[in-house]
Design goal:
Layout: H1 2-45, H2 51-57, H3 60-63, E1 69-73, E2 79-82, H4 95-101, E3 106-110, E4 119-128, E5 131-141, H5 143-193, H6 208-256, H7 262-294, E6 302-304, H8 306-323, E7 327-332, E8 339-341, H9 343-360, E9 366-374, E10 377-384, H10 414-424, E11 428-434, E12 438-446
Parallel strand pairs: 7-9
Antiparallel strand pairs: 1-2, 1-5, 3-4, 4-5, 6-8, 9-10, 10-12, 11-12
Helix pairs in contact: 1-5, 5-6, 6-7, 7-10, 8-9, 9-10
Length: 451
Amino acid sequence: MFIIVITVLTLEIFLINTVKQNYYKNLESNLYNQIKMSTNLYYQYFSDTTLHENVLNNVDTFWRQTSAQVQIIDLDGNIIMDSIGVTSFDSKKMDDVSKALNGEMGKWIGRVDYDTEQVMAISYPLKSGKNIVGVLRFITSLREVNKDIRQISAVFIWFGIVVIITSGFLSIFMAKSIIGPVKEVTAAAEKMALGDFKARSNKKHDDEIGKLSDTLNYMATEILKREQLKTDFISSVSHELRTPLTSIKGWAITLKQGYETKELLMDGLDIIEKESDRLTLMVEELLDFSKFVSGKIALEKQLIDVTRIIEHIKKQLTPRALRDQIDFKVIYEENLPETYSDGNRLKQLFINILDNAFTFTPSGGQVIFSTKYENSNFIFSIEDTGCGIPEEDLPRVKEKFYKGKTSKSKNGIGLSICDEIVSLMNGTLEIKSQLSKGTLVLITIPLEERE
């Protein structure tokens, strides 16, 4: 409103001043034309006699051309004739008379004793030959001109008031249309800040504030989803940890009470060992995950032979493939270049993904691990003929804690760790899958040289 009022007032002052200047300019131009005509008439027809003689004999000639007050002033600044009977004035205060006596046209605007309004006076020299013999002065009141100016100014002022009032109402309406939704969004944000993520911002219009409302609601929904994932993760981990602990405790109690044969003792100790190993692997995976999330993990880079790592994984997982009756193929190009990376993390990456492939592929299926090198990148692909991943789960399988709908998933952090490892190596991990047909995991890691 302040800007609107200042703008309107500035425009009003500019317009009224422009109108006033134009009116005064037109009046000045009219008086100038009239006085010029009269002085030319004097110069052509009356300049052969003295000024006083012309005043006595031809004075009517000077005011026939105008309706203004006419004065004839001599070289000493004295009035020798006035059409309304003014006999004296202070010529030193009249700039127009001084200019006319110097041979120029003069203009003066001011107040006189015999008029309540300002007057405009135009003076012009009267010449006889090349000599100035006096001054002809036309004076007119500005009463009518100022009246017209005041009327036009009143129109402008009323128009400005209408503009200010209209703009005011529009500003109030627009402010309410903005402030109301902003207050609602702020209130919803404050509730969310206090932990109420079920609070929602009510979207009223599809504008910037509406987009802000959608973003806030989306953020709250995502936080709720992640909170639920954390809850499910804790529940899943608790269950996964409870199972081996129960087996260990059960067999410990059984063996403590005594055993009949050495075979029973060996079976019990074997189960305790396997469950302890499983428990250790789960704890290590959780510790790894914690390090990745906190950003404390760092790659221990050294010059590694990719071919040797692939052969090691082949030897490690072939017995499992034979046990599960899965056709496990390892294919790689000859003379793969060496790279500067973390060999242990690469093994962890491949084993985690291959473990998933074996877990979700039934007996009689196939798992293919292939490697090639092109455009300074290692491209690893792990393809299986397992159950596949549902389309709605595929975009989220790399999220932390996400387990999907399958009951075979353990704690929902395996692929998340793999994705973190690939990111640390400046690579990409892409998953493609079709339900009941299988899954393809593509890992691209750039060749790195020693710094």
